[in-house]
Amino acid sequence: MTLASTSTHRDVTDTGGRAPAGWLGSRFPTQVRVLTSRAIRAELSDRRVVVIRMLQPIVFLLVLSQVFGSMVDRSILPAGISYLDYLLPAILVTSGVSSAAGAGAVFSRDMENGMMTRLRSLPISMSSLLVARGLADLARTAAQLVVLVGASVAFSGFAPAGGVLGVACAVGLAALVTWSLIWVFLALAAWLRSMEAVQGISAMVTFPLMFASSAFAPLDGLPAWLRAVAVVNPLTYAVDASRALALGLPAGREVAAALAASLAVTVLAACAAVRGLRRPPVR
User: Fold this and answer.
1) What is the C-alpha separation between 83 and 161, in angstroms, rounded?
2) Residue 45: which H helix or E strand, with range?
3) More confident residue, 66 or 148
4) Alpha-carbon gap, residue 28 to 4, rounded angstroms
5) Nearest-CA neighbor of 141 among 176, 110, 111?
6) For 162-216, how does the pLDDT look when each residue is reduced to its tens digit (9 = 90+)?
7) Residue 248 — left, alpha, or beta (φ > 0 → left; ψ -120 to 50 → alpha)?
8) Rounded Cα gap, residues 94 and 96, in angstroms
9) What is the pLDDT, as a whole number, of residue 123?
10) H-type helices in 68-194, by residue range?
11) FRET pair for 184, CA 20 to 30 Å: which of 133, 175, 204, 217?
């Protein structure tokens, strides 16, 4: 059942089968709920894709733990911390970066294939389309993170000092960072309106963000030029905060910095996304 039919059925029923005068559509929360449900159903329509997406972070963790784990100098790791325990909190954050980039690509595809044009004809807020797309991708990311942590505990012996609470807080922080990055890529999609352009920029941005950070090795182990880049990379602070929470390390300043940066990015990117989407469709 579509957004329009859901709202019309409820309102028309209340007025004896006639649409009330001046009816302007359903309320914003209803729009977000219905559109989010539509996006999630689309995500779950192909079970093969669902399985592949759930496995991606696990494969990424296994490959990187073997590649970098054999090269990293263990003396620069925190005392008593295995490389897997050191790496997994970072994968929580970097997985969110990849998911956020995917959100922009999917949204730009909807703009190209005519779906957004059809939705514009309904009495709904343009902002609800963005919020719904973001919530659907955030739900997918949260599922990926939970599966990643569960598989690591079950099969790799992941047992960080922060315990269940610390890992849960790290997952929550990663989800918040992902939410802010989703808005960045939704803004790109709203302005560029080309899936190829969004994918190209995503590839150009995400890899430097992930690898020029503290995600895979401590800053002390990086070359001087790369360390300088990592210090100003906002993803470094998100990774450090997630790692501190999971490993039971002091995390006050890192968490505060990650939360402040995520909030600022969300507000700015959301404003840009809404403004870009409100432009007339490209013909």
Assistant:
1) 13
2) none
3) 148
4) 13
5) 176
6) 889 999 999 999 999 999 999 999 999 989 888 888 888 888 888 888 888 888 8
7) left
8) 5
9) 76
10) 83-112, 115-120, 126-156, 163-192
11) 217
Residue range 221-278, pLDDT digits in tens: 788 888 888 888 888 889 999 999 998 888 778 889 889 989 999 999 999 999 988 8
Per-residue model confidence (pLDDT) at position 70? 67
Contacts of 221 (CB under 8 A, 6+ apart): 72, 73, 76
* Inter-axis angle of helices 163-192 and 234-247, nearest 10: 160
For the chain, the average pLDDT equals 82
Q: Which H or E run contains 5?
A: helix 3-14
CB 202, CB 185: distance < 8 Å: yes
Residue 159 near residue 167 (C-beta atoms within 8 A): no
What lies within 8 Å, CB to CB, of 263 at 6+ separation is: 180
Give me 256's structure tokens: 């505060």
3-state helix, strand, coil in the chain (%, to 5): 75, 0, 25
**125-142: pLDDT as tens digits:** 888 889 998 999 999 999
Q: Are 261 and 234 within 8 A, CB to CB? A: yes
Q: Which amino acid is at 34?
A: V
pTM of the predicted protein model:
0.82
d(CA 279, CA 198): 18
Can you tell me the distance from the alpha carbon of 65 to that of 84, in angstroms, rounded to the nearest whole number? Answer: 6
Token reading at 26: 């359903």
Average pLDDT for 47-58: 88
Query: What is the structure's pLDDT at 47?
Result: 87
List Cα–Cα distances, 61 to 10, 67, 149, 186, 244, in angstroms.
48, 10, 11, 27, 18
Query: What is the rounded CA–CA span in Å between residue 79 and residue 82?
Result: 9
